[in-house]
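Sequence design from tokenized structure. All designs in this work follow the same two-part layout: the structure record, then the generated sequence. An example of the structure record is given first.
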């Protein structure tokens, strides 16, 4: 016997559960549609949205397929095209994948509103603009191509299910339909979003059931207001009118409270219930997230049920959801999103997609990023050994790839292997693993190559690493174990989504007969990534005992203790009406005319009405509503509040500002004392930089060293077995703190080689090339007359050999080789023009470990001892054999001037090198700085008489020590005594200091007077 009860059709399962508790029979609209489709269209297999997009991509990629002559327009054949689509298809890659996605979205939008390929054909034939006609013809051809490809697989587009179901319902007997539904009366509640295709089959149900005393009714919310001819229409009325047009009958009304007014946003709007509504203004989405979580935590503390708290977004925007998820996790509040975070952004899927990318590019830094992801199994090394050792070797290989410029080679695999250096066997192993992906041409080959790649790298197996240890404990996880469990769960779900998407891709290609279809790597990757994210969903059971994060349109019908609406900004809540990007307003109007009303164009203001109605219905059953908006977007651009916020503020709803940061926890007496000391220390450091007299103290670098610290500094500054580099000594001369950070703390920037070298790397190459050029011509320099042509020819050839061995990708070689050759040639010509001096030594080290290195340069005074090491760029010998000259290369003329002006103060290399040369070779020595850039090298340039005299004074020995040697000893003596205050010899040093900020020098600071006036 049939049940006399009506069936309530609702949006979601939670509504079914709620009505079941109240004794009502309910079913979701999605479930009802699926049940009716299965019963009335049993022989039709529908392809869902993801499958349709893949079918369309396969259909459009086959330009010569039968029946597609109208798709691109023009004559048949593989080059048939309408220009734009043909050009995009031939380009392939992301452009083609996004074009296919746009066409598929347009087809879905058109079919939801009743448009067919025939309707588009009529538009193309009638008198319309050429643009509209071409667009209509292209979309019609794409529809046919999709349907033909689906027909080969025995399927239909699921977006046609609504229209087909309406026809099937009309053709079904009333008794059979009533038996299927087990009722004569259906009522749709809390459903605000109705596409014309949904209204079509709902109307067909109503027409069948009404003669039998039942019907299919739609219940829509309405405000209880007086009828007034001059009153503006509110969004609930606008929504009811739009749905009534689709049903050919008025909807039933359900009175709801106008908690937010009538949302007509006009001067005559209904009053607002100020006791339940608050507004919150935040600086940005991060501050908004913190404020929202604070509201949620407060509601839970006050006794609100966790299931009765909802955070609603007008649009699911990851820029808002990301900080919101983090803030909820930080407060350890369990939340639920029906969609969840996009799987493509989880670490394991990102690593898998990155592996596909690097397999085709073999770009060294991207490979290093993949190796550091944690999802590459070290066993790929193909060696036995301890797993930790293998992981360390993998990390070392990643470092090599990050810090070494790409080597020259005939192709990408050869360049990678040569760049790897000592790790060449591992690079060869990677190249072999990536080979299948690089060779893939067809869709089937890409699918098989992706599976093989991930299996060989161990990406899937690594997704659950450490899981057993984390899940074997019974106690609730806290701290690291909790974070570990969450990470493993996310990766496991995301990996399942990736594998499912890959299977779907393969099954769809097989059904469509497109496994052998050619496709490039980028298009395949984008199709796969899109398919992964579209399938993302969380198990529905996860909403139990969790705060729900949902779209505003999905909150209708929920009894809530707290509703928090975020992103209430202009253009977001409500959104303006927008057409599909490919279906312009003019094309939609032409379709409406050409279809005779079958195509239902969206009514003006329909999007706005639907979203405001969703807000009104969600607020109606909430005890407390907080509406939040941000003043800046993630990029820092200003945002305006939503008109809803402005209207509520005008109505007197109080506005609160979100706190900039979370309130600090209460501190104990000991903590307060520590904080006070820290504040006093920071104020003293700031005052040090503001006070011209720079008062020293232990806080700002005038350290009172304990014996262990004093011994450490002495050892690191050349007071022990290890020699101090002369360049390190110069850092102490430029700024004591800079020298301390660089020499003692070893605080240095990472040296990451780029494909185009920076000035430092280029300078290294120039030094090597000059050393080779002078070394290859050593015996030619003392001859008179000099054979200039032989010196230049042989020297440049030697420099070229250095460049041949120097690692660098071809573009870098082209850029640098000419510049280095010019520099070598210019320096050689300048040396040839100076017949007073002959070349003697190049890159002569002292204090080094090599056999050719001289002993360290040792200075002593009383108990103070300093051991120095360095490398002298060039040593010349006077032609008469009476003296030597040290030549130090600088990149430019301005650098030479700067070093010469600071000679003996911060520029110590040349005079100290001259002292070392004099001590080792037994002859007086002098020195100079010379530029290496070709444009700065003057053949007849000589140091000024003043510089020569200054050099002589610096290296002249009195009482056993030269002046520059005493200067060096004074510098290390002060450093070892703890005089490490950040006082640069020249304030400009701070602009390029590698440890800027380590000395705590503020970028901006208030003077004490300004601070006192505040």
């Amino acid at each position: 016997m049939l049940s006399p009860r009506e069936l309530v059709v609702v949006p979601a399962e939670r509504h079914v559960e709620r009505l079941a508790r109240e004794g009502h029979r309910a079913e979701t609209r999605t479930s009802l549609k699926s049940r009716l489709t299965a019963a009335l269209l049993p022989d039709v297999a529908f392809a869902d949205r993801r499958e349709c997009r893949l079918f369309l991509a396969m259909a459009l990629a086959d330009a010569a397929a039968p029946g597609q002559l109208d798709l691109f327009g023009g004559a048949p054949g593989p080059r048939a095209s309408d220009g734009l689509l043909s050009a995009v298809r031939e380009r392939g890659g992301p452009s083609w994948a996004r074009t296919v996605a746009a066409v598929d979205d347009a087809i879905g939008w058109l079919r939801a509103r009743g448009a067919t390929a025939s309707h588009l054909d009529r538009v193309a034939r009638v008198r319309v603009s050429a643009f509209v006609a071409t667009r209509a013809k292209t979309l019609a051809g794409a529809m046919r191509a999709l349907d033909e490809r689906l027909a080969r697989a025995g399927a239909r587009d699921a977006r046609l299910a609504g229209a087909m179901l309406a026809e099937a319902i009309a053709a079904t007997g009333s008794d059979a339909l009533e038996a299927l539904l087990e009722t004569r009366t259906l009522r749709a509640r809390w459903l605000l979003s109705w596409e014309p295709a949904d209204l079509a089959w709902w109307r067909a149900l109503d027409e069948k059931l009404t003669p039998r005393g039942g019907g299919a009714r739609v219940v829509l919310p309405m405000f209880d207001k007086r009828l007034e001819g001059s009153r503006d229409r509110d969004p609930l009325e606008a929504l009811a009118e739009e749905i009534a047009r689709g049903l050919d009958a008025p909807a039933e009304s359900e009175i709801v409270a106008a908690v937010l007014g009538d949302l007509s946003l006009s001067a005559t709007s209904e009053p607002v219930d100020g006791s339940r509504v608050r507004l919150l203004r935040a600086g940005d989405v991060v501050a908004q997230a913190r404020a929202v979580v604070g509201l949620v935590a407060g509601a839970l503390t006050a006794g609100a049920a966790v299931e009765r708290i909802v955070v609603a977004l007008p649009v699911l925007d990851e820029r808002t959801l990301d900080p919101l998820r983090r803030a909820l996790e930080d407060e350890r509040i369990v939340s639920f999103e029906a969609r969840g975070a996009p799987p493509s952004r989880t670490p394991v899927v990102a690593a898998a997609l990155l592996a596909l990318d690097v397999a085709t590019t073999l770009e060294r830094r991207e490979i290093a990023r993949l190796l550091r992801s944690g999802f590459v199994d070290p066993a790929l090394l193909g060696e036995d050994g301890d797993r930790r050792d293998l992981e360390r070797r993998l990390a070392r290989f990643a470092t090599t790839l990050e810090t070494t410029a790409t080597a020259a080679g005939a192709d990408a695999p050869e360049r990678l292997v040569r760049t790897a250096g000592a790790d060449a066997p591992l690079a060869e192993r990677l190249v072999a693993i990536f080979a299948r992906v690089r060779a893939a041409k067809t869709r089937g080959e890409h699918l098989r190559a992706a599976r093989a790649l991930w299996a060989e790298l161990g990406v899937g197996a690594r997704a659950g690493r450490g899981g057993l240890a984390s899940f074997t404990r019974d106690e609730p996880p806290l701290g690291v174990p909790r974070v570990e469990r969450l990470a493993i769960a996310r990766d496991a779900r995301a990996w399942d989504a990736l594998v499912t998407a890959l299977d779907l891709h393969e099954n769809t290609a097989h059904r469509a007969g497109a496994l052998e279809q050619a496709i490039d790597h980028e298009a395949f990757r984008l199709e796969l990534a899109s398919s992964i994210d579209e399938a993302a969903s969380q198990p529905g059971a996860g909403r139990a005992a969790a705060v729900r994060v949902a779209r505003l349109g999905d909150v209708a019908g929920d009894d809530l203790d707290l509703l928090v609406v975020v992103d209430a900004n202009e253009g977001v809540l409500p959104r303006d009406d927008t057409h599909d990007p490919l279906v312009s307003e003019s094309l939609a109007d032409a379709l409406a005319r050409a279809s005779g009303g079958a195509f239902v164009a969206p009514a003006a203001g329909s999007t706005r009405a639907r979203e405001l109605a969703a807000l009104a219905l969600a607020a109606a059953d909430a005890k407390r509503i907080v509406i939040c908006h941000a003043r800046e977007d993630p990029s820092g651009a200003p945002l305006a509040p939503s008109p809803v916020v402005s209207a509520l503020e005008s109505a007197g709803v109080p506005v609160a500002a979100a706190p900039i940061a979370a309130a600090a926890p209460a501190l104990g007496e000991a903590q307060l004392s520590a904080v006070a000391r820290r504040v006093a220390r920071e104020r003293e450091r700031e005052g040090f930089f503001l006070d011209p007299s720079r008062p020293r103290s232990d806080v700002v670098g005038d350290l009172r060293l304990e014996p262990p610290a004093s011994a450490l500094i002495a050892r690191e500054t050349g007071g022990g077995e290890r020699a101090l580099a002369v360049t390190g000594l110069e850092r102490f001369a430029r700024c004591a703190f800079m020298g301390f950070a660089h020499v003692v703390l070893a605080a240095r920037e990472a040296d990451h080689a780029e494909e185009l070298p920076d000035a430092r790397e280029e300078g290294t190459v120039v030094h090597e090339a000059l050393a080779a050029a002078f070394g290859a011509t050593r015996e030619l320099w003392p001859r008179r007359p000099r054979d200039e042509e032989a010196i230049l020819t042989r020297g440049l050839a030697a420099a070229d050999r250095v460049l041949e061995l120097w690692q660098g990708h071809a573009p870098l070689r082209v850029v640098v080789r000419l510049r280095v050759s010019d520099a070598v040639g210019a320096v050689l010509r300048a040396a040839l023009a100076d017949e007073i001096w002959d070349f003697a030594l190049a890159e002569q080290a002292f204090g080094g470990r090599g056999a050719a290195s001289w002993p360290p340069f040792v200075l002593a005074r009383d108990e103070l001892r300093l051991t120095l090491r360095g490398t002298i760029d060039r040593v010349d010998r006077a032609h008469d054999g009476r003296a030597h000259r040290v030549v130090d290369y600088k990149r430019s003329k301005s650098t030479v001037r700067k070093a010469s002006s600071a000679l003996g103060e911060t520029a110590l290399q040349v005079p100290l090198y001259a002292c070392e040369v004099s001590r080792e070779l037994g002859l007086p020595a002098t020195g100079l700085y010379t530029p290496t850039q070709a444009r700065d090298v003057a053949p007849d340039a000589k140091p000024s008489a003043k510089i020569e005299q200054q050099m002589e004074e610096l290296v002249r020995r009195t009482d056993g020590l030269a002046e520059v040697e005493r200067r060096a000893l004074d510098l290390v003596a002060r450093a070892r005594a703890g005089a490490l205050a950040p006082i640069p010899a020249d304030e400009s040093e701070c602009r390029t200091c590698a440890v800027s900020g380590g000395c705590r020098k503020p970028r901006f600071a208030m003077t004490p007077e300004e601070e006192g006036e505040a």
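The two ends are 84 Å apart (CA to CA). We note this feature because it recurs in several other targets discussed in the main text.
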